Amino acid sequence: MSRPLKEINWDLVLKKMEAGCSAREIYGSWGDSDTFYRRFKQKFGKRFEDYAANLREVGIGNVRYGQYVKAMQGNNHMLALLGKEWLGQGKEEEIKKSPFEDIIELRHENMMLKAELQEIKGRLDGRE
Asked: Maximum CA pair distance of the chain?
């Protein structure tokens, strides 16, 4: 006689999948991978990996929507955050560099060293 199957809270499994948890993070505390994958496929008719990608997108969408709702309800912090993230507002402008920035820097350093060398030579010439 086989022992009864361990109870799985499938609602919790789905919520954790929305949050982006891996199968190992989900089954880690109560079972093994073979059992989890087999029972998942029995329950949902799909492999965990196939189902997880869609639920992760749902989770990201829920967070995005939740942030939007908070912002529209007057949460100024969230509104400012979305302005920065979505619209690029308030972010420091990136300093645009020339593709030749490294070469220019080396040439500048070279010029400074030449000038310093000339100055040292001049001092040495003055002592003689």
From this structure: 107
Give the three-class secondary structure for 96. Answer: coil
Instruction: Provide the token pair at 15.
Output: 């919520």
As given in the structure block, the two tokens for residue 96 are 């645009």
Task: Give residue for tokens 């029995």.
Answer: 42
Residue recorded with tokens 């880690």: 28
d(C-alpha 35, C-alpha 25), whole Å: 14
**Four-point Cα dihedral 35, 36, 42, 46, nearest 10:** -130
Report the distance separating Cα 55 and Cα 107, nearest Å: 54
Q: Which amino acid is at 98?
A: S
Nearest of 40, 32, 38 to residue 16 by alpha carbon = 40
d(CA 96, CA 119): 34
Q: Which residues of the chain have pLDDT under 70?
A: 1, 29, 91-97, 128
